Amino acid sequence: MSNVIHLSWEYPPWTVGDLSRRLKALLPALNSLVPISLVVRADRDGTTQMDGMKVFKVGTSVRTSPNFIAYSQALNIELARGGSDAIHGDPGIALVHAHDWISSIAGTYLASYFRMPLIISVYSTEAMRARPPLNVLNRGIYDLEHYCFQKAEALIVETEGMKSHLAEQYKPPGRVEVCSSPEQIHGVYRRWLG
């Protein structure tokens, strides 16, 4: 089976919120089923082995910004750069898997440029986090999520409730798969990797 590149803005020890914990529980087990390369935001550029995976660390030139959209775009430039390095360094990578809306932007760039399938894991959405009516910042994040979800071949969620939410709020054209285990995610991968 081909390799999968995962993109995330956090993975231990680079923790911002709950995503780091979720990925720490998921990715090592998934890596036992299919080889994974992980691209993650870090303090500086570098490559290392963690939890059996090859990890491409990308340092970010913008550490903080009063404009969160500007910060997320700068972060995505770095994630796309690191992802491109990973793909050029491993011709076996054949699928892009992004986690959360921030990383899905870089995932969409990479999948389009390298002509690979894109899968996005969705843990929450701006439509859930913000209270209507959406302000300009919330609307910008919602629109970025919507765009990336439309480009993905599949979205992976953990619950039927999230699947229903996506169908109602975002109307993705691709499949929305409820996966609660690494084996189920691996089953989704096999549709594109054989």
Q: Could you explain how this protein is built, in words?
A:
- The chain is α/β, with parallel strands linked by helices.
- It has a single domain, classed as 3-Layer(aba) Sandwich (Rossmann fold), CATH 3.40.50.
- The chain contains seven helices and eight strands.
- The protein has helices at residues 18-31, 68-89, 100-114, 126-129, 136-151, 160-169, 182-193; strands spanning 3-8, 36-42, 46-50, 53-59, 93-99, 118-121, 154-157, 175-178.
- Strands 3-4-2-1-5-6-7-8 form an eight-stranded mixed beta sheet, sandwiched between helices.
- A hairpin with a 2-residue loop joins strand 3 and strand 4 (53-59).
- Helix 1 (18-31) crosses helix 7 (182-193), helix 2 crosses helix 3 (100-114) and helix 3 (100-114) packs across helix 5.
- The longest helix has 22 residues, at 68-89.
- The chain is globular and about 45 Å long.
- The N and C termini lie close together (7 Å).
- The mean pLDDT is 93.
Give the helices and strands, then pairings.
Elements: E1 3-8, H1 18-31, E2 36-42, E3 46-50, E4 53-59, H2 68-89, E5 93-99, H3 100-114, E6 118-121, H4 126-129, H5 136-151, E7 154-157, H6 160-169, E8 175-178, H7 182-193
Helix pairs in contact: 1-7, 2-3, 3-5
